Amino acid sequence: MSTVIQKINQFKIILGSASPRRQSILKELGLDFSVKTMPVDEIYPDHLKREEIAIFLAELKAKAFEVNQKEIVITGDTVVWHNNKALGKPKNSTEAKEMLQSLSGKSHEVISSVCLKTSDQLISTYGVTKVFFKDLSESEIEYYVNNFKPYDKAGAYGVQEWIGQIGVTKIEGSFYNVMGLPTLKIYEAFEKLLKSMD
């Protein structure tokens, strides 16, 4: 196992996210962690754009935690940026279908942030991936929304689900970033954190 992961695992790691995708990605990275979420109103100032939104929300979630010297809290957020605006989580099937129709046949950016909080530090970073969709038919959108109910996903889709399998034509950047956790960036943040402790 990587010495970086070994050293990080000496801390009590808390993942501040209920996302099953983030949990499985962290497990694959080799991290030992527990899951704990804090209620936070995910509201951000109107003037923020792209990665500013993702970082603001990840830090907002991290700041809700009290952390001792032996703990590291990991929080994150994902923003789908399209037509100069952020697509959040759809409130209902109508909104989900509208979002997917707007993404159909075009490219958009997925920006996933991560924030590490220790007793005395806050380290934030993010990754950007460009995702291209084919022209999605109405029946494909209808089938996906009705069967997969993507109401917990920014932009109304999960790249690892059916719509990603049949609809995504190209990805420029990290696949894991689109799933919700920029693994390369989080690894670099671990290295930065450990260096600051030497």
Set out the fold topology.
Elements: H1 3-8, E1 12-15, H2 20-29, E2 33-35, H3 50-63, E3 71-82, E4 85-87, H4 93-103, E5 107-117, E6 122-133, H5 138-148, H6 162-167, E7 168-172, H7 175-179, H8 183-197
Parallel strand pairs: 1-2, 1-3
Antiparallel strand pairs: 3-4, 3-5, 5-6, 6-7
Helix pairs in contact: 4-5
Keywords: Cytoplasm, Hydrolase, Nucleotide metabolism
Site (Important for substrate specificity): 21, 78, 160
Function: Nucleoside triphosphate pyrophosphatase that hydrolyzes dTTP and UTP. May have a dual role in cell division arrest and in preventing the incorporation of modified nucleotides into cellular nucleic acids.
What features would you describe in this structure?
The chain is α/β, with parallel strands linked by helices and 198 residues long. It has a single domain (3-197), classed as Maf protein (Alpha-Beta Complex). It has 8 helices and 7 strands, in the order αβαβαββαββααβαα. The chain has helices at residues 3-8, 20-29, 50-63, 93-103, 138-148, 162-167, 175-179, 183-197, and strands at residues 12-15, 33-35, 71-82, 85-87, 107-117, 122-133, 168-172. A hairpin with a 2-residue loop joins β3 (71-82) and β4 (85-87). The protein is elongated, with a radius of gyration of 17 Å. 35% of the residues are buried. The model has no long low-confidence stretch (mean pLDDT 96). It is found in: Cytoplasm. Its main location: cytoplasm.
